[in-house]
Design a protein that fits this description.
Length: 292
Amino acid sequence: MTAGTELRERSSSAHRGFTLVELLVVIAIIAVLIGVLLPSLQAARRSGNTVKCLSNLRQIGTAFQLYAIDKKGRWPVAVHLKEGNPPYVPSIPFERRWPDLLAKYVSSNKEMANEQDIMKVRQNSVLWGCPEWAKTFVYDPSNYADSVRIGYGMNYYPSYFQDLKSANLAYISIGSGRAYPLVKAYSRPSERLLVADSVAHVISLNFPPDQDVPTKVVSISSFRFQPYDPVSWSPPLFYIDAGRHAKPGTTKKQVISQKTINALFADGHADTISVRDAFNAVRNPGRDTTKP
């Protein structure tokens, strides 16, 4: 073999590419690594967004407090319909909702004229229902419900059973609600839910007629709540978004006990809680009269 031939063979060997088998092995290794790492990355993203959303809720809690300072110890109502007979505010030709009333405390946009003006601030303030809310991806500004719902709902029962009897809801319409509620009307504030992840603008508990009594043990699994049940406004219904911070594949039975809902309490603290916790924080703060 001549020196030139030997040099060419060495050069050819040095520049030989990967074989098909080698490429397939590399691709398989990458696929395995992705399969191992992706769930961890997704969990880390969910955890980060949960923390971010809790921070948003704490700032919303501060807005409630600032509103109360301006309004002599009263919080906003969840909804003030234009047909309602409004105490403490002038008559209004349009509906107002709690995010509209709080917007000036969390946004540089101070000109909130009506409920649809929430679109001006919703995606640029803590009033947006956090990155994990489904409407972050399918938001339709031409849809009225989308334009006025921000992904959080307000508990409009300052004291649940008493309010059912007196109609003293923080929701003013014809024949419903009597006042913008006093802060102190929200009894047991460290245990009473104020705002939480929701597909609607209120956190409501709808029982079948005459079935909700303080001492009755309630089966939470019999209630419908999102995203695990078809949308329906007939009782029993709990206006909550129970799956927002749940990992994919979590079942309705699991979220009853797992901490998957971000919630702001009436004393200003925020926490991640379960459906059972949220249910009791509306109906029986500090107590548990539920079963699975």
